[in-house]
Design goal:
The protein is an alpha+beta fold and 484 residues long. The chain has 15 helices and 23 strands. The longest helix is centred in the first third of the chain and has 17 residues.
């Protein structure tokens, strides 16, 4: 934040009639515990008042709100040998990305502390949750109705709509967001004025206007169109990371690349990079030698889109990670699945980030809601690939997509999983699985139908499929998923 912007914000804050749940004026009080309690209280108070952030301003006389200057210097303040900011961060839970700024207003030194509103849980300092009741700092536990309203806010406020940068002027907004890419995606000319550009970005929900006539960038706007996600403290680890390994293990990585732009800008770049590093296979068709991609484009597109759409934005310590191995691709995103893993096909659509999903569908990055897993499984069957594997671990979700294998090289678990997913796919279009359909899925000739029968029997034994009608003759038996 530059000095001019700091001056503007201070003067806007001084126009408030008095201190409040989200605003505190101080002269010189720099007690670390008081500051920590204020961060907790104002972050929680901002949530209650639906403010994107709250503020503490040093150098202002409390009663008169006159600019008197301050001797407080947050950069020099230490607790023992520890810097103030680091000490505060260690004692605040969940993490709060607050920011100190120093500037000069009317020839007086001013310190401005911006505190983002709590977004996922009440903020505590040293284990105590504080809150502002009017202009007073109190214990949140003493006000159960206030805490209840906070939890309601957490449930009803979509992650995408929450603010990630506040107090911006027009110049700062256009310097942070790649608005040119927005117009490129829709093949439209860029408007003649920045005001018109911002109005359109506002209509999309990428930015908002604050009550201090400043601009706010939402998570939605930054995640889709950030020029650099590292410019947004809470989203700096949301960039797409791609690692290529030698062989089938993570022992030897041979290439790593980070795509730091917003997803609407980097999505196609990631797919192009994958296309350049993934080997192609040679096949002979009708007497002519040709090459085909190891992994179908549609499946890779859906896998990547699903990771971006279904991630938990609140989890800031886990990357969007694409790992390329000799025999597979793994894509990991923070947050577990909102749908049971064994019911991903033909399930009722659920997503944490519907606005990101909606925008990506509008620009053709992914398919209609609820069809992603269906498309991925269908692509593997069309190309006679091993079945994909979805799994959860440590609060994350991972999709594994495998390169081609002969049927004889598939493990029993892979064969059963392929059988189950094929049965689910058939059921989703109102059909049933039988020996013939499963043979086609595996690319097995009729003379080897006994191999497929053994897979079906194993799937029955594992309890993942069942007979449609137990009275049917063995030759005509049809199968459906166990849950159907």
């Amino acid at each position: 934040m530059d000095n001019e912007r700091c001056q503007e914000i201070v003067k806007d804050l001084l126009e408030q009639s008095n201190e409040s749940e989200w605003l505190e004026f101080k002269h010189n009080n720099s007690d670390p515990n008081t500051i920590g309690q204020l961060i907790s209280a104002i972050s929680n108070g901002s949530n209650i008042k639906n403010k994107p952030s709250g503020w503490v301003v040093w150098g202002i006389e409390d009663n008169t709100q006159k600019i008197v200057g301050t001797t407080f210097d947050p950069d020099k303040k230490k607790i023992g040998k520890e810097e103030l900011k680091i000490w505060l961060l260690k004692n605040l839970k969940p993490a709060v990305q607050f920011n100190f700024t120093q500037c000069v207003v009317d020839c007086k030194n001013i310190v401005l502390l911006e505190i983002p509103a709590a977004t996922s849980a009440p903020i505590s300092f040293k284990g105590e949750r504080k809150v502002r009741i009017g202009s007073n700092t109190r214990n949140l536990l003493d006000f159960p109705e206030v805490e209840k309203s906070m939890w309601e806010n957490f449930k009803t406020s979509p992650q995408e709509e929450r603010s990630t940068a506040t107090g911006l002027n027009i110049k700062e907004v256009v310097s942070l967001l790649n608005y040119e890419a927005y117009y490129d995606l829709f093949k439209r000319p860029i408007p003649s004025s920045e005001e018109l550009i911002l109005e359109e970005l506002k209509n999309e929900g990428f930015i908002e206007k604050s009550d201090m006539q400043r601009w706010i960038i939402t998570n939605l706007g930054a995640l889709l169109f950030a020029k650099n996600l590292k410019d947004f403290r809470e989203l700096e680890r949301k960039a797409i990371n791609l690692i290529m390994y030698q062989g089938r293990s993570r022992v030897n990585s041979i290439n790593r690349e980070e795509f730091g732009e917003g997803y609407a800008v980097s999505f196609q770049k990631v797919l192009q990079k994958l296309d350049s590093i993934i080997p192609h296979k040679e096949i002979i068709r009708e007497g002519r030698r040709t090459t085909e991609k190891v992994y179908p484009d549609l499946a890779l597109r859906e896998l990547l889109a699903n990771a971006l759409i279904h991630q938990d934005i609140n989890l800031t310590n886990t990357l969007i990670l694409i790992e390329v191995f000799e025999d597979r691709i793994e894509i990991t995103n923070p947050g577990t699945s909102l749908v049971k893993i064994d019911r991903l096909i033909d399930s009722t659509p659920k997503t944490r980030n519907e606005k990101i999903a909606s925008f990506m569908r509008r620009v053709g990055f992914c398919e209609e809601a609820g069809t992603g897993a269906d498309k991925i499984v269908s692509a593997t069957e069309l190309n006679i690939l091993p079945p994909p594997l979805w799994e959860e671990f440590d609060g994350s979700f991972r999709a594994k997509f495998y390169a081609s294998k002969d049927f004889k090289d598939l493990t029993p678990k892979e064969r059963v999983r392929a059988c189950y997913l094929h049965t689910c796919l058939m059921h989703s279009v109102g059909e049933t699985m039988n020996n013939t359909t499963l043979r086609k899925r595996f690319g097995i000739s009729k003379r080897n139908k006994a191999q497929v029968s053994r897979v079906i029997n194993l799937a029955l034994y594992e309890g993942v499929i069942k007979k449609l009608d137990s009275s049917q003759g063995r030759r005509y038996v049809k199968y459906i998923p166990m849950w159907a």
